[in-house]
Amino acid sequence: MGRAKDIIVKVIPSKIANDFVKKHHYSGKVVPNSQLHFGAFLDGRLHGVMSYGPSLNKKGTINLVKGTGWNEFIELNRMAFDEYLPKNSESRCIAYSLKLIKKNAPQIKWVISFADGCQCGDGAIYRASNFKLINIKKNQSMWVNSKTGQVMQDMQFYHKMIKKDENWQRLGGYMLTYIYFIDSTKEKDLQVPVLPFSKIDEMNAGMYKGKKITRAERHK
Asked: Which residues of the chain have pLDDT under 50?
């Protein structure tokens, strides 16, 4: 376990969390409706942030688990760590944050999160944190500008009233959906099958830091 046991996870203000995410998350962007922010501290300094909030597609997501109340689930929508923390610290930090949610927000029954295989990775941290894989979907909504390198989703084009031209190309890759049951009794109400992690390689969806990778390569 090493120095990972010395990490302290606690709630932090949104301003501090957002500044860290902008600097260390691969997208450089925050999710505006994030409401709950946890900081990971080691040696008295902030080295990681986990931000939770309502799902952007709350109406569609709520139906994943039968009988879920409007305030009974939350999305882990941003996670960023620097290089200072020891190996495997991320999953330990997520575990701490989930325990704090269970203690202080007992109405939350489950957590949803998405791994962006188009730009980053296939969710190794979620798998190490005992999340369950419930969907692997080929990207249909993310685009990259070949001239500027800017990345946008279909929804952003709509809200910003930007039209796609010939410079915009669809990003290759997959989006993976993971779920964690804080209340284990709700797992029986999951309305979609849990997928084996081997499905990632079957669909050629493995990715790490923006590059394709196989399961064998991940375990070297």
From this structure: 1
pTM of the complete model: 0.84
Greatest pairwise CA separation for the chain in angstroms: 51
pLDDT recorded at residue 70: 94
CATH number (domain holding residue 97): 3.40.630.30
Contacts of 87 (CB under 8 A, 6+ apart): 2, 4
DSSP state of 184: G
Phi, psi torsion values for 173, nearest 5 degrees = 125, -175
**Structural domain total, the chain:** 1
Strands, DSSP E only, in the chain? 8-11, 36-42, 45-53, 73-81, 110-116, 132-138, 142-145, 151-153, 168-170, 174-181, 207-208, 211-212
Give the domain range for residue 149: 2-218
The pLDDT of residue 119: 67
Distance CA 73, CA 28 (A): 26
CB 180 within 8 A of CB 98: yes
- The secondary structure of residue 193, as a DSSP letter, is P
